[in-house]
Each structure stands twice: as C-alpha cells, then as structure tokens.
Amino acid sequence: QVQLVESGGGLVQAGGSLRLSCAASGRTFSSSAMGWFRQAPGKEREFVAGISWSGGKTYYADSVKGRFTISRDNAKNTVHLQMNSLKPEDTAVYYCAVDKSNFPRSYYSGSYYNAGLYDYWGQGTQVTVSS
User: Fold this and answer.
1) How confident is the model at residue 109 (pLDDT cuts 50, 70, 90)?
2) How many CA atoms within 13 Å lie on the side-chain side of 6?
3) Burial of 27 (C-beta count, 10 Å sphere; 0-12/13-18/19+)
4) Residue 83: partners with Cβ closer than 8 Å, 6 or more residues away
5) Which of 14, 37, 82, 96 is most buried (CB neighbours < 10 A)?
6) Which of 11-20, 50-59, 87-96, 104-113 bottoms out in mean pLDDT, i.e. has the lowest?
7) Distance, CA of 25 to CA of 37 (rounded, Å)
C-alpha cells in the first residue's frame, strides 16, 4: 500500500524558514514526478512546486519562486521543500503528491502545475507563519 507522510511543518515567524519532507513507502517512486501543493483556509488547493523524476527540472508557483526550493532523493524515496523568507500568506496545509508512473517519462512542463497529474497524496502538514 502506497503511503506518503509529510513532516517538518510548524509555527514560524515571518522571514523564517522551514524544511518540509515527504517520505514515500509501498513502492519506489524514482521514475515519478513529485510535487507540493497547499491549501489555505477557505481557499482551493494550489500548486506550490514540482520536480521531474530525475530532479533535473523544477517548477514553482510565481508566489514562491526565489523563496522555495524543491528537491528529491530517489535513493531514499523522499521529496523536500525548503521554504525561506516565509510570509503570513504562506500559511496553509502543505501536501506532497506523486504520480504513479513506474518508468521515466518527460511531461509537458505545464502538467506539473496540475493536480490531475498526481495519483498519490499525503495527509498534509500544517505550516503557520505569524506576522
């Protein structure tokens, strides 16, 4: 059974940093696209960052570009999100997501922004940024 478990969330002051991690189990995802989404209270879930199977291509929402960095460790079946210069508007539940592909494939860049690309989702971790 596939399971994605996020960690690293918490309460931080504006300008601070957090590093989120997502550990996948149940199968190997070294050939899968991975991503992070977030959902703030009263808002729809939105794309934050995505990464290709090799880690060679990364994608970011305009709102986090230059502040957040997505990375992955295929040997450990994990994906990370380093969040710097956090703002109160970054407050949300953050979810990691993985597509089910079990062979390397290149997706159209716009695909990474679409939640429909991803087949497995974690339960989420709360990030709260105080002003």
Assistant:
1) confident
2) 27
3) middle
4) 17, 18, 19, 20, 64, 67, 68, 90, 127
5) 96
6) 104-113
7) 19
